[in-house]
Write a structure and sequence with these properties.
The chain folds into two domains: 171 residues, no CATH class; 111 residues, Roll (Nuclear Transport Factor 2, Chain: A). Helix content is 51%, strand content 15%. A six-stranded mixed sheet has the order 2-1-6-5-4-3, sandwiched between helices. 37% of the residues are buried.
Length: 300
């Protein structure tokens, strides 16, 4: 039987089964500690599930593999204290061992964990999957932002996340040893290249092979419209006004992608657009059929 340090090294080398075994091995201890801090019931179980999700994203940052148990207990303690303060779960807050310079998203790619995550995420219903992706893998992680992008009340977001946490944590452990097909990275790369080229050329034909002709989209005014040409024209108008877009982060799944962009207004119109947007692209692996955008608050 491998010790914890060996399992951590396996996970950091890209063997997701090692991480799955490590988490399952520590589940009973983590649950006992959570019960001691929060009492028996759903809160303790939720705390353990949140700890698993944090470990999934941060295992590459654990410098001392032999300290895996202490690290997991420290993460759990922070999660439990957050619950005791009655604040919304903050899966990325107060985690021991600060993140290195590379973004967490890149770390997941480097460790070959992303496909495992999406294999587990695919076991969730589409509404639960969207809530989890936004909460744990994007900057649009507030309940208000998730509600806006999902088109549901905040209370529904809370309910979906409560249901999804348990299902996802269990699915990650169940799928650790499975074969993990890669999601639609090619579509995301092609879309990014096309949008960058569109920004410089204004040639809307670049989107013809990527977005469906009957594309539905929702932009800053919150009104849902239809038509690839209408979307392309709206984007080109912003570019012609001097707006520039810079990709901050992309999260790709089997049927959706989350694209986070910085938006720079032209110098003579500093309030032309919000400073950032998070877009959810719903796709079939070949073409995007719907885009929903959430915008950062305009500066005063």
């Amino acid at each position: 039987m491998s010790d914890d340090a060996s399992l951590v090294r396996q996970a950091q080398a890209g063997d997701v089964a090692g991480l799955g075994e490590l988490l399952e091995r520590q589940r009973a201890l983590l649950h006992a500690v959570a019960v001691g801090m929060l009492g028996a019931g759903p809160q303790a179980e939720d705390a353990v599930h949140d700890t698993f999700l944090i470990a999934l994203r941060r295992i590459g940052e654990l410098r001392d593999p032999a300290a895996a148990r202490a690290w997991l207990l420290a993460v759990l303690g922070n999660v439990c204290r957050a619950q005791l303060r009655r604040t919304p779960p903050a899966p990325m807050a107060d985690v021991p061992e600060p993140a290195p310079a590379s973004p967490v998203d890149e770390a997941i790619d480097r460790l070959a964990l992303r496909d495992w995550v999406w294999t587990a995420l695919d076991r969730l219903s589409p509404p639960l999957r969207l809530a989890v992706v936004l909460r744990y893998f994007s900057g649009a992680s507030s309940y208000d932002a998730i509600a806006d992008l999902s088109g549901v009340p905040v209370g529904t977001v809370r309910s979906r996340l409560n249901a999804a946490r348990t299902q996802l944590a269990d699915a990650l452990l169940e799928t650790a040893a499975e074969r993990h097909p890669a999601p639609a990275h090619e579509l995301a790369v092609a879309t990014g290249v096309a949008m960058t080229a569109l920004q410089h050329s204004g040639d809307t034909r670049l989107l013809d092979d990527l977005f469906r002709p009957d594309l539905r989209f929702r932009m800053a005014d919150g009104v849902e419209r239809r038509g690839r040409d209408a979307y392309a024209a709206a984007v080109v108008r912003d570019f012609e006004d001097g707006v520039t877009a810079r990709v901050q982060n992309v999260v790709v799944g089997a049927d959706l992608a989350v694209v986070e962009l910085w938006l720079d207004s032209p110098p003579d119109q500093p309030l032309h657009c919000p400073p950032a947007t998070t877009q959810v692209h719903f796709h079939d692996g070949r073409m995007t059929r719907r885009i929903v955008a959430h915008y950062a608050t305009m500066p005063s």
